Amino acid sequence: MTKPPSPPSLADLRQEIDSIDAQVHQLLMQRGEIIDRLIAVKQTQEVGSAFRPAREADMMRRLVQRHHGILPLDTVESIWRVIIATFTYVQAPFSVHADQSLGESAMRDSARFHFGFTVPYVAHFSASAAVEAVAKSKGDLALVSATSGNTPWWLALEADGAPKIIARLPFIERADHPAALPVFVVSRVADSAMVTEVETWSIRVSGWNADTARALSPLADVVAVPDTAFDGAALLVSIPAPGGLDQIKAALIAAGASLRSSALVGSHARRYTVPPSGKSA
């Protein structure tokens, strides 16, 4: 009678883990070597920021789709975010300027989760100050709230050559996310690198009231700052592209408001949600 194989010993299993750890480290170093070659290629073939929002969004989606097993998705997402951010920093050093006016700890958690500790973190007491710092920099990022605002900081993004909204974090949304604060990322990025699934528009209106706000609510995500001088408001509107702006304008007019101006101030990937079942949507 054949004797069943003995289960592996603790020493054997720990040796397997050590081997995997060494392989992971080796692969990271290999990635660094490729980034080093990429830097040389970019110097001759590509000009502009090292940020690639469309590529990052695609990488994070593929990460969720292939992930399985006992390792929490939170851990995997954080590891990949730090890898991406750190290697971007190696290509072109940058700082993260964060608006802490709506909560210091939540904003800091978001910055550290998505960009790690290698990238310098600079705190600001307003969104406008964070955006202004980015406008004066060569390639820094600003993190500002995607759901509320004390001032219409996005007006500074309207001009040609100004920084734009390039992403909305977290890339992957789910219940109990450790860095769940919704934030916009503002920076300068080449047009070819942008992801345009959702457009962000700066819209100024007259006749803003509760009825007007309710009319827009089913159509788009809106951040509104009242403008008492014109009995109106400055809006930051996130609209699924393309063609959503016309629907927004029609809804405003139907609700009794008048459009004073509109300007495209950025774009980002659509929300990628993982429901409690664990299957991405």
Overview of this protein structure:
With 281 residues, the chain is an alpha/beta fold. The protein has 2 domains: 145 residues, D-Maltodextrin-Binding Protein, domain 2 (3-Layer(aba) Sandwich); 70 residues, 2-Layer Sandwich (Alpha-Beta Plaits), CATH 3.30.70. Helix content is 38%, strand content 23%. It has 7 helices and 11 strands. The strands form 3 sheets. A 5-stranded mixed β-sheet has the order 2-1-3-6-4, sandwiched between helices. The chain has a 4-stranded antiparallel β-sheet with strand order 8-9-7-10, covered by helices on one side. Strands 5-11 form a two-stranded parallel sheet. A hairpin with a 4-residue loop joins strand 8 and strand 9. Helix 2 packs antiparallel against helix 3 and helix 3 crosses helix 4. The termini are far apart. The model has no long low-confidence stretch (mean pLDDT 89). It is an enzyme of class 5 (isomerase). Its EC number is 5.4.99.5. It holds the Pfam family CM_2. GO terms for molecular function: chorismate mutase activity.
Question: Which keywords apply here?
Answer:
single chain, 281 residues, alpha/beta, 2 domains, 7 helices, elongated
Topology (SSEs and partners):
Elements: H1 10-45, H2 53-66, H3 73-91, E1 96-99, H4 104-115, E2 121-124, H5 127-135, E3 141-145, E4 164-169, E5 172-174, E6 183-187, E7 198-206, H6 210-216, E8 221-227, E9 232-240, H7 244-254, E10 258-268, E11 272-274
Parallel strand pairs: 1-2, 1-3, 5-11
Antiparallel strand pairs: 3-6, 4-6, 7-9, 7-10, 8-9
Helix pairs in contact: 2-3, 3-4
